[in-house]
Each structure stands twice: as structure tokens, then as C-alpha cells.
Amino acid sequence: MRRHACAEHPALNALLPTIIEQHSANRDYWGVDHYYELDGEAVETVLSPAAEELWALCLDFVARAVDDERILESLGIPGLAWDAVRASWRRADPLLFARFDLSFDGHTPPKLHECNVDVVGLLYETAVYQANWLRRQQAEARLTASARQMADLEGAAGRMAARRFGDRPVELVSLDDDPYDELWQYTLFRILDGAGIACDVRNYTSLEAFLASLPASAGSAVAPYVVKGFRWDHLIRDSALALHVGALPAGIAAPLWSALLSSKGSLAWLWHFNRGHPNLLASFFEPARLDDADGYVAKPLFSIQGQGIELRDRRAPGRNCVTRAPGPVCGRVYQDLHYLPRPAGPVHANGGAGGPWASTGVWMVEGRAVALGMSECDSPIITDDAMRFVPHVLA
Q: Which parts of the sequence belong to the Glutathionylspermidine synthase pre-ATP-grasp-like domain (predicted)?
């Protein structure tokens, strides 16, 4: 894996939606002046098979968890939601896609840092933005016409939705006019509309308003599927709202069972059931289990974008940190410290000595690895949302 400088095209910047320009006005979010080159054979023979095996382990874990109240409780899933979670799994409610965040240097086995299954970020960046970047680079003859990416997220998700949704329309639901949710809706609309699925975009002021909007026919064979832009834990961990979970319709994707993998507690159980697996990091609910390790990363069960992360490095105490609080913490998981790689190449101005660290996001659709997106940050693990999305090519 290498990092290359490239020309920044003003025309490319014009493609970036205004809402994201506003969202990231104070940070260098779009890596338009460099890209990552990954060995295509390593991606095909090492990275993709590892991700597909990890997904199989995840589904096996969910199958165990729905029937084990001890596991459900450890994941931070309230008892009021257990029956609804089980029903969602047993109905095989559809999941459009998921993303693994992996440490991968192109040589050693990739290591799972996190699994993103509920509301999966970086959708536009992976499905649309980097494909536009590649076309621009090729049009300017800065990359050859044969340059390629691992970038079939839009096509794979569209094909999956066409098979699973059939003739039923889809409602894309977001809350509070969040700019990033608008981009998420735009991208999903593009994917589903391209697959011939009728879509409607809805925005609600609150979860209460969303719940009140669900018609009595929701979940029937003719009612729309609902693809939501809010995280399940925002609903199921509110004692008042959780009372409504059992009445939710069947046609919601991402499905309620995805909350089990969204909980960082799933990392501890994946390790428990697959101890020593080459693509997993030792993870536990108690930090003492890692007393002999070089360090650990403590993650709140429902942390996103590095919220509430505690990094403890016994080799380099100067890197220890605790990031911004994520709100109420219902528990933590402690993962063996494993730094992201620092690929060779030009040093980014914000990267410090040695350049930035790089996280490899692999997108899964129906058990297959279909796309990847690179994110880089200025710390050895992702500890906040100040990361940069960078396009890639396969060598």
C-alpha cells in the first residue's frame, strides 16, 4: 500500500454537495490531492476473503445472541427490545450493506477494528465520490484508462434491493434536517432509483414524530419499506420510546437485528467464540484481561466516530488520550491495542512525523466484499470524526 500525490481538480470540487462543504468547512475532509494505491492481488486474495469470513462469523454470532439473554444484556440491548430483535432476525429482515473498519497494510492479515451495520457512514464517499475522482483523473490522463477501484457498492446494493424489495416502494427517513443525513438520503435514492425502486424522502423532527407516522398497514405486503437514518440505540435505549419497539413494522432496513452488531460488545463475543482468529483482536468486557498486552482501546458500547474512546499505550504513554464524551455510557469493551498502518508516500500537512494512519473500510453486501474506501487520521486509531476520506486505485 502506498500513498501518492495527485493534482487537485477544481472541477471535482464542484461535484461535492454544498451540504457537505458546509458540514466539513473547518476541516480537510476530502483528500482530493492524494490517493492510495493498493495491490489488487492482495485485495482479492487476502482482504476480501478475510472480510467475507468475518461477516460469516458476525452472522453466526447474531444467531447465537438472539437466544441468549446473557449476551443481549451484555450488548446493552434493553429487555423491552429482545423479542422484537429476535423477530427481526427470524424474519430475515433485509440488510442493504455493512462496513468493516480494518487495519490492513497490504501484507499482514487484516485486523477488525469495528463493524458498522446500523446507519453506515461514508456511503456517498465510497459509492459516488471516489468513482467521480477516478473518471476525472483518467480524463486528465493522470491515471491510465485501465486504472480500477474496488467500487461496486452502488451496483451490488441496487441489485440486492431489487431482489429483496421487489415492487414495494421505499421511504428514506431522516431526522432534524441533518446535512449529512441529506447526503445519505441522496446517495440511497440514487442507488434505489437506479435499481428501478420507487423512493420517497421523508424528514421528521423527532423519533416520536416518526413513530406516530407509521400507518396501521406498515409491514404489509404493499406498504413501503422504511430505510432509516437514525441509530437503533437512540430508540431502544430511551425507556419511553422503547415501549413502541414491539409494534414496529417488519419492513424496516437496516433491520432491528443489526443493533447487535452495532454494539461494540459484539467485538468481545466475536473473540470469545473465535479466540485466536487471525483477523480478530482480543477484546473483553474487563480491562484486566489485557494487563499483559501493550495497551488497549476502550470503546463505549454505542460509540460512533471515535466518541468516548480511551487509548492506553503502555509503550508510548504520550499517545494516551480520552476523546469527547458520547453521552450516557451503558458499558464498554476493551480491545487489544493495534495501530493502523502508516503507508509510504507523501506526508500530509496535518499528518505529523511519519504521515497519517490509514483505515481500510470494506463494504459487504449479502456476504460479499464489494467495495472499499480509505480514511486517514492523525492518530494511530480513529479517535474522532476529523478524518479524511481518500480515494484509491488497485495496482
A: 23-393
Give tens-digit pLDDT for 185-235: 889 999 999 999 999 998 888 888 888 887 654 555 567 888 988 889 888
Separation of first and last alpha carbons in the chain: 9
- Owner of C-alpha cell 467495495: 371
Q: Give CA angle at 153 (61, 25), nearest 5°.
A: 105
Q: Is the pLDDT of residue 348 over 60?
A: no
Per-residue confidence (pLDDT) for residue 121, from 0 to 100: 87
What is the dihedral sign for C-alpha 244, 245, 249, 254?
Answer: positive
Task: State the Cα–Cα distance between residues 330 and 236, nearest whole angstrom.
Answer: 13
Q: Please state, as a whole number, how many other Cβ atoms lie within 10 Å of the Cβ of residue 79.
A: 10
Tell me the C-alpha distance between 264 and 77, whole Å.
12
SS3 103: strand
Mean pLDDT throughout 356-376?
A: 96
Residue matched to cell numbers 502508516: 342
Return the amino acid letter for 79: G
> Which residue would you say has higher pLDDT here, 251 or 56?
56
Angle at CA of residue 164, ends 43 and 184, nearest 5°: 65
Instruction: For residue 129, give the nearest of 284, 15, 248, 246 by alpha carbon.
Output: 15
> Band of the pLDDT at 166, cuts 50, 70, 90?
confident
Q: What's the one-letter identity of residue 134?
A: L
Centre a 10 Å sphere on the Cβ of residue 75 and count the other Cβ atoms it contains: 25
Under 8 Å between Cβ of 373 and 126: yes
Model confidence at 372: pLDDT above 70: yes
Identity (one letter) of the amino acid at 146? S
E strand segments, the chain: 2-5, 34-38, 98-103, 111-116, 170-175, 199-204, 225-228, 252-253, 283-284, 295-300, 310-313, 321-322, 332-336, 357-365, 368-377, 388-390, 392-394
Q: Give Dmax (Cα) for the chain.
A: 59
Q: Which of 85, 54, 80, 55 is nearest to 67 (CA)?
A: 85
Give residue-wise pLDDT tens across range 79-131: 999 999 999 999 999 999 999 999 999 889 999 999 999 888 889 889 988 99
